[in-house]
Design brief:
The protein is mainly α. The protein has 4 helices and no strands. α1 packs antiparallel against α2 and α1 runs parallel beside α4.
């Protein structure tokens, strides 16, 4: 039988890796039809954000007992979802916030 820390830690790790891989390929997924689909990119970034939040929640859930060794391992592996959050935030900023600011600049 697997203890609670291991179960939630594995869930967090897998979700973090999936979100990081998706964050790297979300632009390619948005170009599946040949044209760039901004709606698909938006859905992809929101999905990645939900996966990251779920991964971090699972990491917190794994550390309910507050054992120092487990917390140290969790902090080490928390880099994965945070790096996915950084990449996802940069993609969102470039494609949505940057385009909006550029349009406002033309308006003025």
């Amino acid at each position: 039988m697997v203890d609670k820390f291991t179960k939630w830690f594995i869930v967090s790790f897998v979700l973090g890796i999936i979100s990081l891989i998706l964050a790297f390929f979300v632009q390619d997924i948005a170009r599946l039809t040949g044209e760039f689909n901004r709606n698909m990119l938006l859905v992809g970034t929101i999905t990645i954000f939900i996966l990251i939040i779920t991964s971090l929640f699972s990491l917190v859930k794994a550390n309910i007992k507050r054992i120092k060794g487990q917390i140290a391992v969790s902090l080490l592996f928390a880099v994965i979802p945070f790096s996915a959050l950084l990449v996802n935030g940069l993609i969102f900023t470039v494609y949505f916030v940057g385009k909006w600011v550029y349009k406002q600049k033309d308006f003025l």
